UniProtKB/TrEMBL annotation:
Keywords: Heme, Iron, Metal-binding, Monooxygenase, Oxidoreductase. GO terms for molecular function: heme binding; iron ion binding; monooxygenase activity; oxidoreductase activity, acting on paired donors, with incorporation or reduction of molecular oxygen. It comes from Pseudonocardia halophobica. CDD domains: cytochrome_P450 (cd00302). InterPro entries: Cyt_P450 (IPR001128), Cyt_P450_CS (IPR017972), Cyt_P450_sf (IPR036396). Residues 379-396 have a biased composition (Basic and acidic residues). The lineage of its organism: Bacteria, Bacillati, Actinomycetota, Actinomycetes, Pseudonocardiales. Belongs to the cytochrome P450 family. Residues 376-396 are annotated as: Disordered. This is Cytochrome P450. It comes from the Bacteria.
Length: 405
């Protein structure tokens, strides 16, 4: 099969918008990804996305940020700061775990601190395993072994989280149908949305399980990865340009640009892959024959010198063309564009127009970076960060930091 790689910014943008290019990155990751939103195509994808999009309406995350996101971030950080050290990967996953579980519709215990901690530990373990399953194409381990571990984790996840969450929602939906409770009393999460639209979506319990597992890992892995890279880039920048970095520490809009610059340089998904269902001609002249395999090289496109001046340089103060997001293609585009963009990345402040605090949506990654820096987080001088030896991707396996007040 012919493989065509697109590495220019404009080609990738155009390819994302082609309806005849279908998802092909997760063919090997079917154990957790089969029939999930990210692999559906055409009418099936449109139906599922319409149902799930309702949860991600504009304004939802502005409300979340004001109501509880900041607290989730600082509460998760507090015990690490008190202990004087943390690993950014663990801190990132722990912060985002509760949020993605909430979006997916997985209830957590509300009892003792030990119970809550144990649930977050379990979710963290599942998210890491599901993520390994989804990106099996990049694994350097035995794929058969990874698949078996993911299947076992799915069973455990089902019993511990999914079945109790389904039972609670089905009971609520029965009461809703009987007019005993209103729309306001129903949880706003993916699981409830799928249960309510069961017949229209034509899904079964296995698909439901994989969709919830997919959400858990899609939201958490990318956010934890972005957070770790954002901190790493910021620390390096603070060494090179201490005055500029110091200004950013006290300016959330500028810190958000730091995060966008990190997303551009270290996209959590460095490539997207698609299969051509029909012949396609791109405006730049590339011909894509039917049946060919198309690699959208996001990491390269995000460093396209035609769009980004001095593309290799981490420069949060850079200027970018008006129609180009500062994160480049890090959140994808077209039909599969990341549904969690606003939750993770917030809403960019319009150039030259300061946004009031009540209007601003910074996004989880910026909130996390802001809290880390405010707590005096810096790289552990005695323990260097480690790259992930089991992935060909640009991921850290550990990133020790210490806190000084
Ligand atoms: C910094 C954080 C994040 C990054 C960099 C990121 C990146 C991406 C990218 C590149 C895609 C498209 C993949 C493709 O076209 O093949 C995507 C899709 C998706 N993301 Fe994210 N994501 C992030 C956070 C989140 C969060 C927090 C959630 C949910 C809670 C989420 C849920 C999804 C879903 C459901 C899709 C599939 C959309 C569809 O197929 O229609 N992501 N993400």
């Amino acid at each position: 099969m012919q493989t065509i790689t697109l590495a220019g910014y404009a080609d990738v943008r155009e390819a994302y918008r082609q309806h005849d290019l279908e998802q092909a990155l997760y063919d090997a990751g079917g154990v957790v990804m089969a029939d999930s939103l990210l692999v559906l195509h055409g009418a099936d994808h449109r139906r599922r996305r319409r149902v799930e999009n309702r949860l991600f309406r504009r304004g939802t995350f502005r409300y979340w940020e004001r109501a509880f996101l900041r607290d989730v971030v600082t509460d998760t950080l507090a015990p690490f700061a008190a202990a004087g050290r943390a690993d950014l990967l663990e801190l990132g996953y722990r912060t985002i775990m509760n949020l993605t579980a909430m979006v997916a519709g997985l209830d957590r215990p509300t009892g003792s601190v030990e119970e809550v901690d144990a649930a977050v530990d379990a979710l963290y373990r599942f998210a890491k395993k599901f993520s390994e399953g989804a990106t099996i194409v990049h694994t350097t381990r035995d794929p058969g072994k990874v698949r078996a571990e993911v299947a076992a984790a799915l069973e455990e996840f089902d019993a511990l989280f999914l079945q109790p969450s389904i039972a609670r929602r089905e009971a609520l939906l029965t009461r809703f149908a009987a007019g005993e409770i209103t729309e306001e009393d129903l949880p706003r999460d993916v699981l409830t949305a799928l249960l309510r639209n069961w017949d229209e979506l034509g899904i079964d319990r296995d698909v439901l399980r994989r969709e919830c597992a997919f959400y858990l890992q899609a939201g958490s892995h990318s956010t934890a990865d972005a957070f770790t890279h954002a901190a790493d880039d910021f620390f390096a920048w603070a060494k090179r340009e201490p005055a500029a970095a110091d200004k950013a520490r006290h300016d959330p809009a500028l810190l958000q640009r730091c995060v966008y610059e990190t997303l551009r340089l270290h996209p959590a998904s460095p490539v997207a892959q698609r299969r051509a269902l029909a012949p396609i001609s791109l405006r730049g002249g590339t011909e894509i024959p039917e049946g060919s395999f198309v690699v959208l090289d996001i990491a390269a496109a995000n460093r396209d010198p035609k769009v980004f001046d001095r593309p290799e340089v981490y420069d949060p103060l850079r200027e970018v063309p008006a129609d180009v997001p500062r994160w480049g293609h890090a959140f994808g585009g077209g039909m599969h564009a990341c549904i969690g963009t606003e939750l993770a990345g917030g809403v960019p402040a319009p150039e030259g127009h300061p946004v009031s605090e009540s209007e601003r949506v910074l996004g989880t990654v910026t909130l996390m970076l802001e809290a880390l820096l405010a707590a005096g987080g810096r790289p552990d001088p005695d323990a260097a960060p480690q790259r992930d030896p089991h992935s060909a991707r640009d991921h850290f396996a550990s990133y020790p930091v210490v806190f000084e007040g």
